[in-house]
Amino acid sequence: MNDVRELLDRAAEGAGQPAFSAGAVYAKAARIRRRRRAAASAAVLAVVAAGAFTLPRTGGDEDPAPASVASAGPSASPSAAAADRAGRLAALLPPDVGEIEEVSLLALIKGATPEQARTDRLGPLDGQYAFRRDGGVGYLVLTLEDREAVERKTGRPADPDEDLCVRVGQEPSRTDCEREALPGGRALTTWRDTMDVGGDDGVGWGPELAGRLVQPDGSQFLVRSSTGFEGTGTQGPLLLEPPLSRAQLKELLTGPEVQPKG
Description:
Layout: H1 3-11, H2 24-40, E1 69-71, H3 78-83, H4 85-91, E2 99-103, H5 105-110, E3 127-133, E4 136-145, H6 147-154, E5 175-182, E6 186-193, E7 203-205, E8 208-214, E9 220-226, E10 229-231, H7 246-253
């Protein structure tokens, strides 16, 4: 499953029917990836493209992503942390992750208007964030999908007992994949993606950590910790490492702050 396209498709929900789709950001890269992996499938890998899906509107925050900026660590006061999502996220992270800004990848890469880039948010910290440090810019994308959304996309709810590190059929294998069973019947899987694709769409993504936290109610969190992108809409050079480490992703995803209130 193409988790990058999946997350951008989720980010585009609420945009109505613009002249472009979120999937277009990675469409050409996805085709190249499929061709490359198909060529190697006789020996190692093959790939199956993921389809787009629609997330039902269920209450969440529907305002366009503001360009709010916050610094991580103790310097983020309680009042600043409560003021916006970037501030609340920064308050949960150590100061060395850098300056955090909420952004819209559709607006950056495809020039989407605020209306087109609008998205539903089920989780209080769902969103797309730029991380600036050491002269580079990386990105964190966090998305909660409820059971209905997962069933609509895959035909069944998310299953905590499924081992995502085990390759099934023609699915692409996940590099440096780690799965951990957590208390409460949850399962967290994280892996690396080199994003070694190219194309003429003007965007090239750097390596990233990806993750999926599956919950017993059939919902799941999807996360990308990306070193950034180059080309159309870039905000700066790639980070040397993903903005959040594997341990930091786990701490974030398993904390109560990402869960819907009530």
